[in-house]
Amino acid sequence: MSAVPSVRQWSRDLAMGAKFAFTGGREGWMRAVLTAVGVGLGVALLLLTTALPSALQARSDREKARTDITFTDVGIPKASDRTLLVAAVDDTYRDKDIRGREVQPEGARAPLPPGVKKIPAPGEMVVSPALADLLKSGSGKLLRERLPYRTIGTIGEPGLVGANELSFYAGADNLAPRIDGSRVTRIDHFGEPLGPPDKLDPVLLLLIIVVFVVLLLPVGVFIAAAVRFGGERRDRRLAALRLVGSDSRMTRRIAAGEALSGSVLGLAFGTVFFLLARQLAGSVEIFGKSVFPSYLNPTPALAALVAVAVPAAAVLVTLLALRGVVIEPLGVVRAAKPARRRLWWRLLLPIGGLAMLYPMIGKGNTSGNFNQYLVIGGVLLLLIGVTALLPWIVETVVARLGSGSVSWQLAIRRLQLSSGTAARMVNGIAVAVAGAIALQMLFAGVEGDYTKDTSNDLQRAQMQIRLPYDVPLDQAREQFARTKGVRQVTAIGSGSLGDRKRDPNTSTSVTVGNCASLREVATLPTCRDGDVFLVKGPDSDLDAAKLGKPGRTLYIDPSYAESFRGRQAAWTVPQGIKAARIRTDATNGLTGGILLTPSALPAGAAQAIEGNAYLRIDQSTPDVYDLVRNSTAKLSPLAHAWTWASTEQDNRYTSIRTGLSVGAACVLFLIGASLLVSQLEQLRERKKLLSVLVAFGTRRRTLSLSVLWQTAIPIALGLLLASVVGVTLGVVLQKMTSVSVRVDWPSLLSMTGIGAGVVLLVTALSLPPLLRLMRPDGLRTE
Amino acid sequence: MSIGHTLLGLLESGPRHGYDLKRAFDEKFGHDRPLHYGQVYSTMSRLLKHGLVEVDGIEAGGGPERKRYAITDAGITDVQQWLATPEKPEPYLQSTLYTKVVLALLTHRDASEILDTQRSEHLRMMRILTDRKRKGDLADQLICDHALFHLEADLRWLELTAARLEKLAEAVTR
Amino acid sequence: MTPAGSLLTAHDLRKAYGPTNALDGAEFSIHPGEVVAVMGPSGSGKSTLLHCLAGIVTPDSGSIVYNGQEMATMNDAQRSALRRSEFGFVFQFGQLVPELTCVENVALPLRLNGTGRKEAERTALSWMERLEVDDLRSKRPGEISGGQGQRVAVARALVTSPRVLFADEPTGALDSFNGERVMDLLTEAARSTNAAVVLVTHEARVAAYSDREIVVRDGKSRDMERIV
């Protein structure tokens, strides 16, 4: 016999272990399936993580390929038979963004947008499949009014960045006079020839990294705990094998086989979970962005690494757990009582994590570049710090707890003897809660800043509509005044006023509106149509005072050397110019310069005036925003409406936060299930003792309470630690993204609440078996 | 062990010649020490004298005269009494007890009753010894322990026999 | 049927576990201060008889009267309370709570009865002294020998000064020397408090500590005193 075991020997031992993993009755199965589900979730998350970079790349490539409007005046090609006029008519419906373009070919060889076979004629459009569905559905009724075009086809996948993207190309005419380089332009090809590689929004990148770390880590902790399920039973089984002649190496191989088979099943589960998630990804939107399932392809090398690393890690954990155990033929000898846990190295982990995160503080605002490795490392160290600190805390606290009632005493003494087991079971919950709290805080912070970000005065107006020059202000005012849910319309046009036709030396702004509208931007003494005002006040424009001398001829919309030619409409300051007092307007800005009532505006100047309507809205009217948008579309497809109110924008975060809560809850319940399994295993081992205690006349309540304390104490400590670490990490993340620091109490409470709920549930579910075990049958062993 | 009671018990199943009695005794109980015919003869004359047996008939002819003995009512009562009375618990009782059990089985009496009675008697003795041991010095304790262990061995034998009565009944009545 | 002066009597007890009749018309009675051994082969129903007498298991039929009170009319909580305050228990093994120290184990029945921790442990310690295991007070059950463990268990059974002590094979896992030590201390302590002892055993030398024995065979009991 050779000293080195043959391959056959090895495979036989591993196969035996695999057999043990799935035999052993209902608990054996439950354990195997729980382990596999845990490993599977981890694998699926890992695969998603490896697929994410390529998915984002694919998205950004598609986005670039369809780029049309580059927001520059320069490089606009001359009209030819190969050019196309494009107008951005992006819109919003309910809380979804719609990418919209009006297109007008200037010749037979005009470029086709990606994914579009034929350029629609005026009155026609091509739409993305998601938009087609929306238009057909009942909830798309208001949108149908806004897009009254005939649908002649759909946009193919190459023209979309996500399966759920709402997008359309509508045919148009008469776009040429509106070319301004920003909203309407002329192109001879789609796509961005060259340009800097797209950078992901650093805050978004941070969120993605942290989400994955936060979800992966508890699953990792869970896997580590899961492969130790039924450890005592396994050790006894191995001891029995030793008795019939296997050596210690063989038993270790058998144990490795058990762990290996569980994790291989987990790999299979994980692949299935991943494929499901990939399909699901087509219908899920994050930040209003969706992807195509085909984008989510894990890099083969990374996927292979996952397939090897996960079973290897499972085997490693098992062998590590067996390190402190000597399996003898007549039983299991645990290595000498483990030394008292030390604090210092456990503290090093979270401190190290904070140290790695510290240099990132404030980066979200300025250069916007996080070092991904430092972020991942820091978050990992902080959260792993929880798993390192918790056993020490549980041991230290439990050792100091005095005795109270009998149930309390029983629980405390049990925890004192095996605080490690207790802490290990709770570690997963603590890490999950800590991570979830931190993430919720980050989201809450980002969300809070979004709300505060707007400087507009939401009391005075909640929507703004930018009007193209050919829409008269009066028409707009009437249109919106007729719209249901609109309480007040302020329609104001603005433009510039100079002392010369070209390159003026002195210039000021000119604001046009009826008396009611002008009163929104300045305090007027009296007002009639035809009046002209010069705004005066401490912060008023000094140039305006120079220019506003009666009789002086000025030019509205003067031309500048490096821009489009202006309208250069001449206007003479009338004798009756009145003084107006400055006042903050709805945008919290100060309007200075000269104010004109509509009939004071010279002919030909109208086109030089950019109109804006500010609406005060009754937000209780259903779909009021879309009613307004529909009115806007009726005025002109090129008019653009947007909301100032933050309520709509909150929704995108709300859905993510809900998703996160659901994810965290799922992880918690998975851990809860494993808690239950080990709890039941432990109870069954104590069947005889429980029967004896019942014979003594111990009340059921006492024993039930002791089971509750036994779970509740470590979990309470775990949740406490998780809250502290979670809030710390949350604050650091908030500082990193430079949002204002605030603790998000509702999510803190809800996460700890879910954790506590898991304890109660586990206890409640272990009560019926406990009561059954407390029957005197346990005494009938002899 | 009482040969007289044993022979009486054997007679309960029917009258026999002296020589038949010896053969039956040897077969059932005398595996290692067969009975001399002289012992049978002397025992039977003693039983005759006490009126526990009677002569059922005499066969004349060659050789020694052959009397046929039958048990009397007094004899049956005597056997009954002997079986019901527990033996004084002392070492090496098993041959007597065994004889009693087999006789009981042969005569269709309740053998377990005999064992239970004996068991109770043993335990009574053990109680006394245990009590003496608790009150006595070390020497007393050691002596009592010796007796206790022997009694315990007997008692175990009694229990084992009780558990195997059915099999034994099959074997002896075959 | 109740013999005069008996503390606990049972009449015509029947109990079936599935198809097997563990008890099939068993009788029992015990006086205060009496030690009664329940003997019989394995599986004869001795332990079931003890469980019924102690109110741990309810018989299918028959009556059990403790101190003039019919146990069948009590509910689970009342029987539990009875076990806590009036009865004491010693089992073969695995009865000490491994997490608790010895003195805490002994004090447990008092604590279950609502006695404060300090007082309970003081009483417990005095009983441990009587059973000569007071030096083990802060050891855990895993750290002491089987004989010591049984003595701790006896101290625990007696700590509430029960009126009936139920002992199910109390020396089953011990050698003869340790077994006798335990029996000596147990019967002595029980006699000193005038407690009745129901002693289930299959060992004659253990049964020899009794005043009287009954034999259970096939679920039927025989009072040997009445035979002799």
From TrEMBL, chain A:
Assigned keywords, A-Z? Cell membrane, Membrane, Transmembrane, Transmembrane helix
Domain annotation ABC3 transporter permease C-terminal: ranges: 209-324, 663-770
Read off the InterPro entries from this record. ABC3_permease_C, Membrane_comp_ABC_pdt
Q: Where in the cell is it found?
A: Cell membrane
Q: How does it sit in the membrane?
A: Multi-pass membrane protein
Q: List the GO cellular component terms.
A: plasma membrane
Query: Where does it primarily localize?
Result: membrane
Keyword Manganese part of the UniProt annotation: no
- Name the residues that span the membrane: 32-52, 203-227, 259-281, 301-322, 343-361, 373-394, 659-678, 707-733, 745-767
Q: What is this protein called?
A: Membrane protein
Q: Origin organism of this chain? A: Streptomyces olivochromogenes
Automatic annotation (TrEMBL), chain B:
* Top-level taxon of origin: Bacteria
Q: Which Pfam families match?
A: PadR
Domain Transcription regulator PadR N-terminal, residue spans: 7-77
Signal sequence range: none
Instruction: Please state what the protein is called.
Output: PadR family transcriptional regulator
UniProtKB/TrEMBL annotation, chain C:
Q: Name one GO molecular function term.
A: ATP hydrolysis activity
Against PROSITE patterns, the record matches this protein to: ABC_TRANSPORTER_2
What are the residue boundaries of the ABC transporter domain, all occurrences included? 8-227
Which GO cellular component terms, listed alphabetically, does the Swiss-Prot or TrEMBL entry include?
plasma membrane
Instruction: Check the record and name the Pfam families matching this protein.
Output: ABC_tran (PF00005)
Keywords recorded for this protein, A-Z? ATP-binding, Nucleotide-binding, Transport
Q: Which SMART domains match?
A: AAA
Q: Which InterPro entries match?
A: AAA+_ATPase, ABC_transporter-like_ATP-bd, ABC_transpr_LolD-like, MacB-like_ATP-bd, P-loop_NTPase
Gene3D superfamilies linked? P-loop containing nucleotide triphosphate hydrolases
For this entry, the protein name equals: ABC transporter ATP-binding protein
